[in-house]
Amino acid sequence: MIEWAILLQILWTGIAMSSYFVLLTVAFALTLKVEKLWNFAQAGLMGIAFFTMFFVVNKLGLPGWAGLTAGLAVTVAAAVALEAGAISVLRARNSGGLTFFIFTLVFSQFAAYVLTFLFGTEPETIYPSVMSPVRIISNIAVSDWDIQAVVTTIVLVAGLWAFLRFTRDGQFMIAVADNAKLAEIYGISANRAYIISGAIAAVFLTVGIYLYGTRAGVTPDVPLVLVLTSVIGTLLGGLGRVFAAGAAAVFLGLLQSFSILVIPSKWQAMLLYGVLFGALIVFPRGIPGWRPRRVQAPAAPAVASPSPAEG
Amino acid sequence: MEYLAGTIILIALFVILASSYNLIIGYGGLNTVAHPIFFALGAYTSALLGIHAGLPMAVCILAGIAVAVLVSVLLAVTTLRISGDYLLIASLGFQLGLLQLINNMEFTGGPAGLSAVPNTFVGQGRGTIYVVICTLAAIAVVWAIWRTMNGPFGRAVRAMRDDELACAALGRGLISIKILIFAMGCGAAGLAGGLYAYYFQYISPEQFQVAQSAQILTMVVLGGIGTTMGPIVGALVLVALPQAINFLQLPNSLVGTVQGLIFTTLVILFLFLRPGGLVGHTGSQSSHGAAH
What we know:
The complex is a heterodimer. Chain A is mostly helical. Helices cover 69% and strands 3% of the residues of chain A.
């Protein structure tokens, strides 16, 4: 019989650990929503972010905030350069999905090789120790890292929600996501929306990999595995549903955490891939209950009125 | 000499992989990235039968092909109702899941892989024999694909790729066409896997990772997707050029990384400078399959 305290501990640890999954998944889902791009290059950006922070903190001996600032600056710059210098070129050529898939995947591999060349293949963490002070609250161990991760994630996700809801650029991003050509007719710059979504995604990626890299070792290959988790979360959440994708990432984090009760840890990765494969087969468009409810149209008149496209 | 033989064998095996992948993705328009897992299934089945059952090489490789075909049919039956990007991602999940299975099983050698694959041919002529076998196999696969795609079945496959609805309206069974080309392509990948296991005598899950998917896909697209010569040229260029690094006498720990850097740099350059592929048309390119 498993005690409640153990279950609650797993629940809390799962929620805390899913924080970086949420940030990485939201970044992936946002790019997919706005740019219609399965951006595997985000793995490369994650690698760039992590090793910039690692270099600043470990090699230059500067404090963590300086590392995070440098990581944010370099990653946002890399994301904007990638969007403006490569992805926009492929988009202008009407390249197919395969070309984007190859480019983004190969970019990540290229970044991984450069990082391997520079930093080697040993797992590295941003700080020398991954331990953080722990306090016991109602028989549950809560570490400072847990609180930092959960609070940071909530603040960033809430900030993104507010940005999309209340700012012009955020609303323009939604408009471009809905119909880029129509948005451009109304004077909205799709390119600007793409660059802003890429920059926001870069911020989420940097903070996500910061949280991961303060908890576990990172090698240049790790980001690609993390991106696959983002893909699973995005699919489970339903395409175009950025915050539902974040919720799905929490579910995946909890699933992995609770799975240790029934399956050995070495099979946990397979559980994720099984969920990915199964979700696509059973729910190829996302979990049905999570789909946005359509606005009910008024009762149709006897004579069909022209559709918006016609008139 | 052995080094040259090894390079030629790698080129021949990648010609098989790229051509068979081109059959699925280029001619059939089915966006999957799971091709390396069928390569792995062929390799592991052949190696395991060779090690534990002591069967002749040809029988083991045939069994590898059969397993690859069987699994491909199972995958096709479950996934071909989805298409485009979804099929791409589902196949990625399938590949990674199966690879994880291979990685965690004891009888497959786990992460360490299998290293005691029987040595069928011994002596100085071993490399030459494998060069002949692999080259003949590559020619046979390319010829079979060329013949198939230039016959009535090939026309049906292309019609399906270009317009599924119109093809179905003409009374063609789309699912059976898809399953057939999937099985043919994956069977060829199984053949390449069996030959790979027997020549290199060592296989591990690391050799069949996502990077391998990108590598084979790149060969197809950069060579010229939907063409007979494209995958051959792609395999030749992308296997041979990174090998040049071996002559620089770098430390062993750096060779793989530098080869990877050369490979990925070449891919990025080709994507922007020759978007239509080396054999295909130049100018703007719109790959088959997933609408973007």
